[in-house]
Amino acid sequence: MAQRLHNKLKTFRLGGVHPDDMKLTAHVGIEPLPLPHAVSIPIVQHIGAPAKIVVQVGDPVKTGQIIATQEGFVSSNIHASVSGTVTQIHNVMDSSGFKHTAVDIQRDGDVWEEDIDCSEKLVEEITLERDAIIRKIMEKGVVGMGGAAFPSHVKLRVPEGKHVDHLIINGVECEPYLTADHRLMLERAKELLVGIRILKKALGVDTAIIGIENNKQDAIELLDKLVKDEPGITVEALEVQYPQGSEKQLIQALLNREVPSGGLPADVGVIVHNVGTAVAIYEAVQKNKPLIERVVTVSGKEVKRPANFLVRIGTPVIDLMIAAGGVPDHTGKIISGGPMMGKAIADLNVPVAKGMSGLLVIPEDEAKRAESYNCVHCGKCIEVCPMGLEPYRLLLLSKKGNSERSKEEHILDCIECGSCAFVCPSNRPILDYIRLGKTQVRKIKKA
Asked: What domain range includes position 388?
């Protein structure tokens, strides 16, 4: 064991940076947040079409009851996260600042749907076959919980003509501060392994690799021990290098396969699922439990009580901040996600969604954008780009609105990791402009 970990660790080939990991909550156990008085559940919590609302104001609902059904193939069901009464259907702001339709529920207790197994008993025997597994994951509204929130059942429907031979479980969690996945690996390791077995069965693959960065030694050691007699599942310790947790970089690090420009992991025979997603899939398939709660890290240098909370979907962000000791004085920003890829939230009443992995409190003196200067042509942004792009050039093209040229320069291949902005000595808002440029290119494609 020790000898294996001290061998040269794998990582991706191009670029990357090494921000301080600041894992302040790595040793803080998962704590259930007290149930909110009311929730506001958006019907857009996933990539794809919004779900169709199937309840009305005044309807009583139970915890786990479906309140919105998926519309189209790339979509996801939405379920009530508490029991109570539907009080309002209206537009609410999400963590990105956009308004979407949401279903408000006033909680009157916590009465669950009768067919959901709420016990903590581990259910290991997988009785469902492949199609039934995928259908169950679809019914229970499971989406990718690493941030992208892509409907999980869609990933498992491998396109005709594609052959998948590897499942990768992403336990990297390379964003500074975030520890939700780390704690899940430690506290729900056995459920995770059953989730991996379910995914292997659904995909028809024999091999699964759990990739974990080497700064999570306790998780590596625990899972290494548990998979010792587990056929086809291995644990791989990875070099600590951001953005190791990005799908394309993780595939390259573990299997030395390169996803083509504009391609998907399935193009190189791989499907990647996040640790949290695998646990949610265990709950959906073995416990009949919809995705109605998730672990959210609340952290920051000034936070009084940094924590990993188990939170019902739709809970207002302010409830998490109060439980963590309140919003610190002189707070400049609260970010949904991590400091590299997260986005500042404008209102503490925004609801927790399926893809919200963390809340990071940034002090006022660190939240101000530094003054930007002219590019000094140092090339650092090129050196650290894990996709082999030229970020300074993409900034200029986006600024000029030259979408055709941006497309030719593969702007859509940018994974928005923020490494370029992190190293820029001139403090140029590179990622901001690249995000703008990507939006411009997508508009052209839709026209």
From this structure: 380-446
